[in-house]
Amino acid sequence: MPNPSSAKKANPFAVQRAKLKATYRTARFLLKMFGAITLLLALVMTWVLSSLFHLNIPMAFLGSIVACIVLGMVVLPVKVVWRSKLSQICQVEGPWELADELTFSEIGTALDDILSGRRPREEKPNLALALTNVKLLFIRKGEPQKALKIAEYLVENSEPGTSNYIYQKNTLACLNVEMGMYQHGMALLRANLAQLESEERAGSPAYNSVMLGMLEAYIQQRRVDEAEMWLAKLKESIDTMHGNTCKNHTDELVKFDVGSFEKDMAFYWKGLGRIKAIRDDVSAEDAFKQALELMSKECNRKHLTLLYPEIMLKFADFKIQRKKYREAESLIKDAIAYFDQKTRYRGPAYLSGQCAHAYVKFKTGAAPEQCLQDMEAAVTALKSHYQEGHPLIATALAQLGECYIAAGKYDAARDALARALSARKTLFPQNDATILEVENLLASVPENASLSA
Questions:
Q1: Do the beta carbons of residue 309 and residue 338 sit within 8 Å?
Q2: What is the model's pTM?
Q3: Which overall architecture, per CATH, does domain 346-453 show?
């Protein structure tokens, strides 16, 4: 865990800008949450003051508003909300030093205990909120294993009836899917879906996140028929959410705080592009371009910093599939540059992008020996995040195996390709094109391995 006191001093201008944004978002959030109550209370106070004390009505109303605001600042956890907003802003936009200080300063020893599998020895006030911010930080840095442990603790120690419980469960489910634990993740998502439908919360942000989790699970397993079904459900939910007011107050607050039609549609177009890519449909390119166009807007990247480069990498995968290696290389370079310059994320998507970058350099004429070191390092780093059978590792191993063949390292090629084939046969449908691709590569390895290094 970072030590806030050891962090270098943040840029003062960036700090002040972040604080102003946090103040604005806090006021906006509290106004949405308590504005109607404040107005009603101010009207009652104005009536009392004007009727009993014969005060000027406009002045009485203005004084009542000020009094209600002051009272609200005393009664409501304004400082807690403001610090949480500031932490989230700094996690996305920087300064990173302040993000770490805000995120870890109030967590005490609880984080080390949770990451070690122990119950926290001390549980400070607002621990759940502090842990939620830590979980978001780990997701944004690309440390899914740590985020998963915190998500498990938050779900186990939250009351099922609380307003954000379903959101905590959705995060836990989606992290399980990301880690390749599809059976458990999808079971959680189906349970969440049943709960949301029983509460008539279809067409809410929580409902959308279930659709996205199920869509991701089926796409990762290349089960396109099921993926198409969930994509259609996602589109219907997006249209419903942005055409109506959410019935649940928490859903409406989440929609108000971070939701927008264009951001949700970027997820839709990304999903459509990936499904069409699995089908080897050339129109996948149009879908990816639609997603990139939406996420090229700064306002849409405000809360979804990682989505933009992730779309580029998925688009690059399609270009590699179509053997358009120069175009793929350009997309990968842009994605990695965005990760490097705009985020702290160095997680699995970043690492698979590095492996793909080395692979396209090999496919465009670079000597395989020059590319192997980068590919091997990326594969090793990926294994620190995911288990061997994860589809991202399978793809990296297939690319690595092909490069080994070109370098004459036939034993290493057989090992990498066999592991890639085993993972794909376990995860993907029997007739999936990527299985045949690896089988053909394996068949091309010379029987005589005497030249292997």
A1: yes
A2: 0.86
A3: Alpha Horseshoe (1.25)
